[in-house]
Design brief:
2 domains, about 260 residues, four-stranded antiparallel sheet, about 25% helix, alpha+beta, elongated, Alpha-Beta Plaits, single chain, D-Maltodextrin-Binding Protein, domain 2
């Protein structure tokens, strides 16, 4: 809703299904979470971006605010079971610890847990999810802002198919993936090339190469000084890498 306010939302149960639909042309764009400030990266989405012909067009930061939600008329002292995504449950440990009668149960999705409790009409069940989920499913919020740490943000990517978008001339951030040969100093040499050109690398992440044990792909984010800086970064890396793939150039999101 934030990245494509006029778009029609098409839901998928699995991330891989969303990527397939985008590449196949069933949808025009996909919005995926890539990193949470507390829980870390969504590793599967790095793998999917590498293996699909998609590009990052924009990014945004969303403040995550967790709420205890129940059906209309329920009271907080009635709740003895709380459902939510495992990450959301982990981010509300203090609140759950203050209510020892509430037993936690992992669910596939935060909003889905609200949908379930509304369908069950169980006054003893609660869910941890967003205010929007409570509003959409007609549930009530019993306690708001129950997350342990208020500095809880998720970074989202807005993806399009490669070749169907015009590069953003105001792009000041580059995401890419690369791999190096398994020899001493190859990774250090690649990163030294970036530093030599004054590139500020804001993130690095490694992921195993499927089917090739103990080989890794590195994902990095870099700040760009100008449009030509992205081309310079790619040119600097290629002599030291066995594979380099640009994932997208876009404007860096701010709080």
């Amino acid at each position: 809703m934030k990245l494509a306010p006029d778009g029609r939302i098409v839901p998928f149960s699995l991330s891989a299904e969303a990527f397939t639909a985008l590449v196949r042309g069933d949808v025009d764009a996909a919005v995926i979470p890539i990193e949470n400030s507390l829980a870390g990266s969504v590793s599967e989405h790095f793998d999917l971006m590498l293996t699909h012909d998609v590009t990052i067009l924009r990014e945004t930061l969303l403040r995550i605010k967790h709420n205890l939600i129940a059906i209309s008329g329920a009271r907080i002292n009635q709740i003895d079971r709380v459902f939510s995504h495992p990450v959301a449950l982990a981010q509300c440990r203090r609140f759950l610890g203050e209510h020892p009668q509430m037993e936690s149960f992992a669910f596939y999705d935060t909003a889905g847990s609200v949908k379930q409790l509304v369908e069950l009409r169980d006054r003893h069940a609660g869910a941890i999810a967003s205010e929007a989920a409570a509003r959409y499913y007609g549930a009530q919020i019993l306690a708001s802002g129950i997350e342990d740490n208020p500095e809880n943000y998720t970074r989202f990517f807005y993806l399009r198919r490669i070749g169907e978008v015009t590069p953003d001339p105001a792009a000041n951030k580059l995401s890419l993936a690369f791999s190096v040969e398994n020899r001493a100093g190859t990774l250090a040499a690649a990163l030294s090339e970036l530093a030599r050109g004054g590139t500020n690398m804001t993130k690095i992440e490694s992921r195993p190469v499927h089917g090739r044990p103990w080989e890794y792909v590195f994902y990095i984010d870099c700040q760009l000084k100008d449009a030509a800086d992205g081309d310079r970064v790619l040119a600097a890396l290629k002599p030291h890498c066995s594979m380099v793939k640009e994932l997208g150039r876009y404007q860096e999101a701010t709080f």
